[in-house]
Design goal:
The structure is a homodimer. Chain A is α/β, with parallel strands linked by helices. The first copy, chain A, folds into two domains: 3-187, Amidase signature (AS) enzymes (Alpha-Beta Complex), CATH 3.90.1300.10; 198-238 and 301-359 and 367-388, no CATH class. Chain A is 41% helix and 16% strand. Chain A is built from 13 helices and eleven strands. Chain A has helices at 3-6, 48-53, 62-69, 112-119, 136-142, 176-187, 203-208, 211-228, 241-267, 273-282, 287-307, 330-350, 378-388, and strands spanning 29-33, 73-78, 125-129, 145-148, 169-173, 198-202, 230-234, 270-272, 312-317, 354-362, 365-372. In chain A, a hairpin with a 2-residue loop joins strand 10 (354-362) and strand 11 (365-372). In chain A, helix 6 runs antiparallel to helix 13. Chain A binds chain B through residues 49, 90, 92-93, 264-266, 268-274, 276-277, 279-281, 284, 329-331, and chain B through 49, 90, 92-93, 264-266, 268-274, 276-277, 279-281, 284, 329-331. Strand 8 of chain A pairs antiparallel with strand 8 of chain B, so a sheet runs across the interface.
Chain lengths: 389, 389
Amino acid sequence: MTEDALNAFVPGPRCRIAGAPSGALAGLDFAVKDLIDVAGWPTGGGNPDWERAHPVPTRHAWVVERLLSAGASIAGKTGTDEVSLGILGENPFTGTPINPAAPDRVPGGSSSGSASAVAGGICDFALGTDTGGSVRVPASFCGLFGIRPTHGRIDFTGICAQAPTSDTVGWLARDAAVFAKVGAALFGEATPTALPQTLLVATDAFGFADPAVADALAPLVDRLAAIVGTRQDVTLAPQGLSVWKDAQRTLQSSEALRTFTPWLDRFNPRMQYGVARNLALASLLTDADRTRAALMREEARLRLRQLLPPGTILCLPTTPFPAPMLGLSISDLAFPRERITCLACLGGLAGSPQVNLPGALVDGAPVGLSIVGGRGTDSTLLAVAQAFA
Amino acid sequence: MTEDALNAFVPGPRCRIAGAPSGALAGLDFAVKDLIDVAGWPTGGGNPDWERAHPVPTRHAWVVERLLSAGASIAGKTGTDEVSLGILGENPFTGTPINPAAPDRVPGGSSSGSASAVAGGICDFALGTDTGGSVRVPASFCGLFGIRPTHGRIDFTGICAQAPTSDTVGWLARDAAVFAKVGAALFGEATPTALPQTLLVATDAFGFADPAVADALAPLVDRLAAIVGTRQDVTLAPQGLSVWKDAQRTLQSSEALRTFTPWLDRFNPRMQYGVARNLALASLLTDADRTRAALMREEARLRLRQLLPPGTILCLPTTPFPAPMLGLSISDLAFPRERITCLACLGGLAGSPQVNLPGALVDGAPVGLSIVGGRGTDSTLLAVAQAFA
């Protein structure tokens, strides 16, 4: 597929910036989600009225600066769901990036263009953001490695916030070695050689996915178990994945509304109806709702700490199904969106690092297996991804 | 001001259709709000995803057909608030039409382009729709004659519906004789020569307007009283204008959401945040809310029947202030919008005909005086407007 046909990059002149002449990432090209500042280029945020409301940044985001210093070069800025509010990647303003692995399906979002560009082979890796699944879901749908790092581990300076207690910046890659190398540069530590010894299999999450997905992922789980060692079935969310989802939705929506209200009020921006509706309805959440959700977040964090001592990782399906078809209606997608969030919510809720491993197909479309570690074990997950590949 | 600078017409090729060679309206040019079908031209509805979702009409709306048959010619299709949902006329998709009478202020809406084109002198009259004030408010803000006819009096076929129990099609004109002639053609009856004998002055509505507006309208009320005869102060809404407003808002929003839901669901259209938010929040209204509102509508209708026997008309300020400045924020405009609706709600609530009479200025910007008659007395109101001018 040609670059133009992919529609991964934002419209207008292509942002290209050469990295430092030498460094660990020299020779690698990366794309930058258009929520992340690149000095001298507008941060479009996937919405014409976001770009209009914000000055062109004069400094690179921390993560961009770091990658350029390590020798990687910017290949372009990539499309996103509007101001990161979306999980499917459909954007009528900048166009929906193609899912090269399944062109009749959505790419996943909100890091849609980043996933499209990497899966389409036009750059080596790409930066995304992940608040509620925005790196992991497009990685699953496009068949890529993708990481949501430990919350707070990578400096978020120069990136459009959504829900600060859940916001992270991550990346996607086709090649596990490249995927790990980027981590070494950003975390400032070598990818470890020692692997975990215990693999937990989240039976509630596998049971929540479509049976065809659980079946397609089974060989990947076996491969993972063969690398890691002991395998053990566990329940990830004793309170229920849907209860965790509600808590994450409440916290994330409330924070997003707080983040975007000054812009919404001042600029009355054009938005897709579904995006605007979700923001509007978030105004109905109460302090009591938020308190209940914050308490459930504590319980989820406790659960992850209990399950994931050093040397243990957990696996689950990244998404309960492969990418939905393009062009479905809001009501067709309402329940599928909620199901995706039931599996993706643990990232924002617990702040744990999570990596999508590609390799399975259902109806010819990719679907990924996620591995999750304790907070700060990001590099271990990258090592597992390399061993897995 | 030049036609292009006015921004009254929708972008793209200009729709021009000559009327019948002879007829009562021969020689007059009119503009058509872009919610009203003109055969062979897209009905844009002020929203790019409305036009995309609907086929180009193959028949004229009833009202367009009638005007062309009477000899009037179409000068163009004019901008509107998105799918009629707005009262100020600001539209980022097609551009906000200029208010020629006060260029630093909004034109009023949703028949914004129609008001702009007529006030700018580039056509003789223009069609608009009025569900909750969409002809009367831009007429007040742009200094024009404007009529909301009796609900159901003029065939609505071929016009984008919003709230069917309140929707009407009306028109705006600079000249009272033209204004009345259009009515004669559409109502199929001559403008009467006999005028009403009693003028009721709605003291609650005058008290609700800005004091400067009440002062500026006082000479117009005197002029009207001199034409009509007996003058009598009355309370229009014993239950409160804000109670009437709530009832109209509940009924209109509920119907609008029902009207637009299939489109919203299927097309997930781009909309201004404020428009989308109002639709989303309408989903919270309950059947009990709607029943309460429908009962209040009955009481409002009863009140108007009691106040307006044959030979009596009522006057009130059309809007509580002249047009707001351009570019205010959603929160700046929240209370002003509600105040406008307190004065405009009686049209949709009672279904009575209402005409805006221009002639007053506040801070250099127009503000209009409304006259209201019993159902079916539209032509009498046109006769009063002619006598007034």
